[in-house]
């Protein structure tokens, strides 16, 4: 993933010893554009405040004084505000932390995805074994994972909050800014770093953008002669600098990078983002893409958990559907449901709801749909299948538990799920089903000896990352993994999150 997203040439990666530079819906404030410096970032005394998210659910950002921080303590809110200890990493060596972060799954339950994003953005104490040679490596791994998950704005803000803006962090910021359509900001990050790793292609590109084409071409020739660019990079940059002298379609490089993608777009031969990692989908939300491309991108980013569902809702209702089938059926049914809600037509609401739910379930957007409509539909009279769907909507959105209790089906699973939602003891279950796996997780507190040993040693972060991996495996149908993952979350004091994940495991089908 890092090779496909972050780029600057294989030679640069060898020089730096770092991964190739490539590249929530948590809250409204987290979607602000990246800072746009007018001068290259310089190491300096850090600000005494950083953004803190009391609850990563679209609340206003406040600030809290932190004093001077080390690179690895960088975060956007305190660990305690999300129920985790500041000394999360304990004695775990940075290499083990990084390996666990790299393995953090993207395809998981919505509540687990939110917890993953919070974990990547929170402020923790540095690892006890944070030796000078690895300084900043865990922060870099967190940034790279955020970008891999599609959380570009969050990754950009994490870089901006770092007490020191290193060359490698600025290289990441360059790629992020390119994908957000902020080329001027991107070039400001790379200013003055011609000799830095990962910067030869960006410096040539930025020199040309400033209008100094002759200097850019000279730099290209020199870099090519010194072996600082691979053949694909050099060919693409040459075509970019000699655009007026050449005709014909441009062949995209085998491994596209943010800079390569942006140059292809500038040459009039853009590469569709649908076949690229989810981080590239942000480029289609700039307003220059067609409505269909914007909808596709917004659905991808919403499914990843990094775009607010209401932004997707705004796109769904922007204009009339242009065709039929697939995406356009979701557009039509959302618009029909909106009209029914505005008119207070209960029958029409029920009809639209029962049509919409399977369409959104087919593309794994049920949780986003629930966020869009939970508040508007909570008090609507409902019966039959519409009542069952509304019950699921309220549970997935964690809204109006009192109303959800009224709508709960009088079945063994209905009672079991409501007990999870209400934090009550679970009804006795012992069968080879997901409900049985969940019951075992909450009723058997005994952890495997290896996991208990990690907790006793203070390696809380490794236990949490392992739990998130097991939850993803559970979502794919591994019942034993579901039990183990939920057990770990409970052992870490994350009972509320564990219960919400358990509800989602029971209501959402993620087995393909």
Question: What does the model show?
Answer:
The protein has helices spanning 2-5, 10-16, 94-102, 110-121, 137-148, 152-161, 167-179, 183-190, 200-209, 213-225, 231-241, 258-266, 291-304, 309-316, 327-343, 346-361, 366-377, 384-397, 401-407, 412-422, 434-443, 449-456, 460-475, 479-491, 495-507, and strands at residues 49-52, 62-65, 77-78, 122-123. The protein is mainly α and 512 residues long. The strands form two sheets. The chain has a two-stranded antiparallel ribbon. Helix 7 (167-179) packs antiparallel against helix 8 (183-190) and helix 24 (479-491) packs antiparallel against helix 25. The chain is flat. The two termini are 22 Å apart.
Which structural category do the helix and sheet elements fall into?
mainly alpha
Low-confidence stretches: 6-69
**Global morphology:** flat
Strand content: under 5%
Kindly provide the radius of gyration, computed on alpha-carbon positions and rounded to a whole number of angstroms. 24 Å
Percent helix, as a range, is 40-55%
> SSE order in H/E notation?
HHEEEHHEHHHHHHHHHHHHHHHHHHHHH
Mean pLDDT: 83
Strand order of the largest sheet: 1-2
Major pleated sheet: 2 strands, antiparallel
Report the strand count: 4
SS field, number of helical segments: 25
Q: Report, as a whole number of angstroms, the end-to-end distance.
A: 22 Å
